[in-house]
UniProtKB/TrEMBL annotation:
Region named Disordered: 1003-1052
Statement: the UniProt record of this protein carries the keyword Cytoplasm: yes
Main location: cytoplasm
GO MF terms, alphabetically ordered: calcium ion binding; GTPase activator activity
Residue ranges of every copy of the EF-hand domain listed in the record: 861-896
One of the GO BP terms on file: glomerular filtration
SUBUNIT field: Interacts (via domain Rab-GAP TBC) with RAB11B (in GTP-bound form).
Residue ranges of domain Rab-GAP TBC in the record: 490-677
The protein's name: TBC1 domain family member 8B
Residues in the signal sequence: none
Any one cellular-component term (Gene Ontology): cytosol
Length: 1108
């Protein structure tokens, strides 16, 4: 059957395949182990592997690949089960394709044509043999197996499943791979050997396609330091794509919530489906390619031809429709695309119903003619409905006149194809200018100046005018290779702002949000936040050598734009480097335009760059390292540790080279960035390293390498810049410049495109996804190591035990987030907080985890003991427990002395742990990470922690009758089920009766005395002092304390109380109890049991609640 053309890896493929037929453009191969000959030992191994697999995962024994003579890339175009089937496909290619390929000049055109033809064949076959991928009956059976084998909570949503082989060591296990919302699962049962694997997506460090000697392609998963390989997948690319999306979904939802909140389509984890993920991925690619707002979704895709007036031929491509845009991208290698906002469309006409063509008329006397569109009627109706043409009064008033005008345009276009103004027109210049770019105000161009630089600037402007006349100007301009060539040569100063707006898509944002910026400025005026404080501090550090920012005009504009954006997007607020970027934007764009350019950069073009962890920049640095390994092997051999380049290049990515290059050179880099995105920055970075290759290889240390790069950047010039010397940045170190040959920025950029222009945007995006997992997990691991280092100073657990405890603690947090659309626990995670505060547990989460880890078997997550423990260790009573508080409590219970364990249990039965109402756990749960930080409160809390004295047993208040009875019950519950249960019961009964007799004797001796002595015995002052020092006693507990102090005068004779010393002394006289608490506990065993039972406990709880 014909296959959708997909690039395949052939690194080791020829060991598994035998070529039977080949020509200049196609190769027919047979898999070893099939057909004649068998293939020897290799064929026997391959044949055995393929034979033991079930039918749904077998690799087809025959295939046809497409390639071109000057390319190493192969594309799969067909596969077959029998020799006859594959030979039929081969003959068809020989008769129908080979003759046509000779007319093409380039390999790219040949490959594009073959791919388009194969896709057309698949579409024709799909008419008669439509196969539903999601068979409801099969999916239901798979869901039952999934629930039975893995025992996950009933809320867990199975997305899809595949048959595959899992490599356990060097032996493949044939089984089933299940991909659910939160877990990657595999199950195999062969000859009595069961293999079960459950990995949560948030634990994965690496996810990539790879190849090895035995198997051509497989999927590699790295989690918990272990490598897992899945192979023999019939649809490997589809499987990998779904896995990649689910991992990315989990990362965004649990770690990177800022990005997740921008994607409402994936907000509910219970509604994730395979089809939904695929649609979301396509929409994301669609928005990225055409630079559209994040609200746009890909609704329809049609294949057809567009008449391209500047080339005078029809180009094959995809017609894509979203809610507000009509887009076209060619598929023939011409790299032509166009974006038409629906607001610009005035009419749609079908000139001839037999030709399957339609013409879209746009404002400014422009027209786009599409032909050979299979479902042209639907396309026309969709465009009309989206534009509201039929409902528009101006069109419905005189339809005949409009039809006549449109027909005359069509006729004129057909008769005069060279008249391209009908197709693309000229820019509408009727808009009034509200403000001016700072460069226009401070350095207006001198029209009469005829020096060489100004003449060259005029030539550039003329080149762009010719380009506009051919390709159009404004939102519906055609983007082609020629556009990129002009960008590389340099953009004229007068057109820079306009083109930045167009290439970034910011022009559409501004057009669809009139007045939005003005409202933001008014609303943000006078606000005082942490972001505004940082903005004020950095205003005068933004291009301070430029005259525009030495005046109040530039500074005020910069303040307004940055403050307005911080008000619009409080999640990002303000991040250093935004001031430098915005300063350059204000030089060439009007103030409102600069704001929308900043929106486009921060929210679309450089996602996750401008936050506290600069995740996006770190991800692109990892992508940059990969590209260095691929393209600069000499440098890699000399400098095996590429982390140096990551540290050096951080400013390159954050400021788009503005911070390291002279301003007149840096703007050329920004030109390329707005046209090609991050790909242009990566290319330029490689060109810089390549240019300095010899010097970098010969340097002895990192400091010398940094000096070499700094000297290089200082030597970069822009010979064509018409700016006066006062505007250009003062170059540092003129003496050093003499020793370094000057480099023109245009030549450097041209060299970057020539050498590394083959880097595809799709490859960059794929590498971004792959490296994002590793970057996030590295940051998380750094957080864990810092937390463990702090906590290890206060507890007796070793590093390994603390590592396991942290993993359990963090996983418990995630388990409460997996199956809820808006889990409160998600608000408890804020990466911007201190390490210890990033992950915290609420009461429900804590009680479940504590029931698995507490050393005595009686406690369950419904037990009152977990509630009292939670209240006791929640010192600030915010309803959240951090990892240090959790570990300190467990350390006391596992490794504390008998006195410390008893003191802990004693305090559990005192306020604030014991006397609060059952529902009074969470006093407050503040929204985290927003607004102005109260530094005074932090300083006061820090001072209290420093001054806090270590608590002694004399500081503990007396325990009253109710509390003592509950303490006795707690002891009985702790001893329940122990082998020495009876002796322990007798011992505690003896202690209880002894304490009661002691209290009775004491009261009799004190009867003649004054009540003040009784109050003194009750320890009033120490209790109050302890309350003051710890700051943990609530007003309710204070009232309770006063009531117990007046027991001698106000309560009945049956009321009594004990001090901690009395309880301790009595229990020390019972060796059985002392031995019970002093007996060493196996922490490692308990951790292992908790790890195995953690997910099962959640599943059982979910089933119980579902059953109820």
């Amino acid at each position: 059957m014909w296959l959708k053309p997909e690039e395949i890896l052939l690194k080791n493929a020829f060991k598994l395949w035998v070529t039977e037929k080949d020509n200049e453009y196609f190769v027919l191969q047979r898999r070893r182990g099939y057909g004649e000959g068998g293939g020897g030992l290799t064929g026997l191994l391959v044949g055995t592997l393929d034979t033991v697999l079930d039918s749904t995962s077998k690799v087809a024994p025959y295939r046809i690949l497409h390639h071109t003579p000057d390319s190493q890339v192969y594309w799969s175009v067909a596969c077959g089960v029998t020799r006859e089937e594959i030979f039929q496909h081969w003959e068809w290619l020989q008769q129908n394709i080979m003759r046509t390929l000779s007319v093409f000049d380039s390999s790219e055109d040949i490959t594009s044509f073959v791919q388009g033809k194969i896709r057309g064949l698949i579409a024709e076959e799909g008419k008669t043999s439509l196969v539903l991928e999601d068979d409801p009956e099969k999916f239901r059976e798979a869901l039952l197996r999934f629930e039975k084998w893995f025992e996950l909570p009933p809320e867990e949503k199975l997305v899809t499943y595949y048959s595959c082989s899992y490599w356990k060591g060097k032996v493949p296990c044939q089984g089933w791979l299940y991909l659910s919302t939160n877990f990657l699962c595999f199950y195999s049962y062969l000859l009595g050997a069961e293999v079960k694997l459950v990995i949560s997506w948030d634990e994965i460090w690496r996810l990539e396609k790879t190849s090895n000697v035995i198997l051509t392609e497989s999927i590699h998963v790295l989690a918990h330091g272990e490598d897992h390989y899945f192979s023999m997948l019939l649809h490997l690319n589809e499987t990998f794509s779904i896995m990649e999306q689910l991992a990315d979904y989990s990362i965004k939802r649990l770690f990177d919530k800022e990005a997740f909140e921008r994607e409402p389509a994936l907000s509910d984890p219970l509604q994730i489906t395979k089809r939904g993920l695929e649609a979301h991925a396509k929409s994301q690619q669609f928005r990225t390619f055409f630079r559209l707002p994040k609200e746009e979704n890909l609704l329809e895709v049609h294949e057809g031809f567009l008449w391209v007036p500047f080339s005078h031929f029809n180009t094959l491509g995809k017609i894509c429709l979203s809610e507000n845009y009509l887009c076209f991208a060619s598929q023939d290698g011409s790299q032509c695309h166009v974006v038409i906002p629906m607001r610009e469309v005035v009419n749609v006409e079908k000139p001839d119903s037999g030709s399957r063509a339609l013409t879209v008329f746009v404002r400014g006397k422009k027209a786009l003619r599409f032909s050979e569109v299979r479902d042209y009627q639907r396309l026309a109706n969709t465009i009309r409905s989206r534009c509201g043409i039929s409902a528009s009064p101006q069109h419905s008033a005189s339809p005949e006149a409009i039809r006549g005008e449109c027909q005359s345009l069509i006729n004129h276009f057909e008769d005069n194809p060279e008249d391209v103004t009908l197709m693309v027109g000229q820019k509408d210049s009727s808009k009034a200018v509200s403000t001016e770019a700072l460069m226009t105000v401070f350095h207006p161009q001198d029209v009469e100046n005829l020096d060489p630089k100004m003449l060259k600037e005029k030539m550039k402007e003329q080149s762009w005018d010719i380009h506009f006349s051919e390709y159009g100007r404004g939102t519906s301009m055609f983007f082609t290779r020629k556009t990129r060539d002009l960008i590389v040569r340099g953009v004229p100063e007068s057109l820079r702002g306009e083109l930045w707006m167009l290439f970034s898509g910011a022009v559409n944002d501004m057009a669809t949000h009139p007045g939005y910026y003005t409202e933001l400025v008014e609303q943000s005026l006078g606000t005082s936040t942490l972001a505004t404080d940082e903005i004020e501090r950095d205003l005068h550090r933004s291009l301070p050598e430029h005259p525009a920012f030495q005046s109040d005009t530039g500074i005020s504009a910069l303040r307004r734009v940055l403050t307005a954006y911080a008000y619009r997007n409080p999640k990002i607020g303000y991040c250093q480097a935004m001031n430098i970027l915005t300063s350059v934007l204000l030089l060439y764009a009007k103030e409102e335009e600069a704001f929308w350019l900043l929106v486009a950069v921060c929210e679309r073009m450089l996602p996750d760059y401008f936050n506290r962890r600069i995740i996006g920049a770190l991800v692109d640095q990892a992508v940059f390292e990969d590209l260095i390994r691929e393209n600069l092997p000499q440098l890699v051999e000399h400098m095996t540790d590429l982390s140096f380049f990551s540290s050096v290049s951080l400013s390159w990515f954050l400021t788009l080279f503005i911070s390291v290059l002279p301003i007149e050179s840096a703007v050329n880099v920004v030109d390329c960035f707005f046209f090609d995105g991050i790909k242009s920055i990566l290319q330029l970075g490689l060109a810089v390293l390549d240019y300095n290759m010899e010097a970098l290889i010969s340097c002895s240390d990192d400091a010398e390498a940094v000096t070499i790069l700094n000297k290089f950047f200082d030597s970069v010039t822009n010979r064509d810049s018409p700016l006066p010397p006062t505007v250009q940045q003062a170059l540092v170190g003129n003496n050093s410049k003499a020793s370094h040959v000057g480099v023109d920025i245009s030549e450097l950029i041209r060299e970057a495109y020539e050498k590394y222009g083959s880097i595809r945007s799709e490859e960059v995006e794929s590498s971004r996804k792959r490296n994002k997992l590793y970057v996030i997990q590295t940051l998380e691991d750094t957080t864990k190591q810092n937390v463990i280092r702090v906590v290890s100073q206060d507890v007796r657990f070793n590093i390994t035990q603390l590592d396991e405890l942290y993993n359990l603690f963090k996983r418990q947090h995630f388990l409460s987030c997996y199956w809820t659309m808006k889990s409160p626990a998600l608000l408890h995670h804020d990466p911007s907080l201190a390490y210890l505060e990033q992950y915290q547990l609420g009461f429900q989460q804590f009680s479940e985890l504590f029931s698995l880890l507490e050393p005595w078997a009686f406690c369950t997550y419904k037990s009152s003991l977990s509630l009292w423990v939670f209240r006791l260790i929640d010192e600030n009573q915010d309803g959240l427990i951090n990892f240090k508080e959790f570990c300190c409590a467990l350390d006391t219970l596992y490794s504390g002395s008998f006195t410390n364990k008893l003191k802990f249990l004693f305090k559990l039965h005192l306020p604030p742990a014991f006397d609060l109402p059952e529902d009074g756990v969470i006093k407050k749960s503040p929204e985290r990470g927003r607004g102005r930080i109260d530094l005074q409160a932090y300083l006061k809390q820090w001072q209290n922690e420093i001054l806090k004295k270590e608590e002694t047993i004399k500081d503990l208040p007396r325990i009253n009758q109710t509390q003592f009875i509950q303490l006795s019950k707690t002891f009985y519950n702790i001893f329940h089920g122990h082998p020495e249960e009876e002796s322990l019961y007798r011992a505690i009964a003896h202690v209880t009766s002894l304490l009661l007799r002691m209290e009775e004797v004491g009261r009799r001796l004190q009867e003649p005395s004054s009540p003040s002595e009784s109050e003194k015995a009750a320890g009033t002052s120490p209790a109050e002092d302890s309350s003051t020092e710890q700051g943990a006693v609530t007003p309710e507990s204070c009232d309770s304390s006063h009531n117990s102090q007046d027991a001698g005068s106000e309560l009945s004779d049956t009321e009594w109380s004990f001090s901690f010393e009395q309880v301790l002394a009595s229990l020390l006289n019972e060796p059985t109890i002392v031995d019970f608490f002093d007996r060493p506990l196996n922490v490692q065993t308990k951790l292992g049991q908790a790890r195995a039972a953690q997910l099962k406990l959640k599943a059982n709880k979910g089933k119980d609640s579902k059953g109820n």
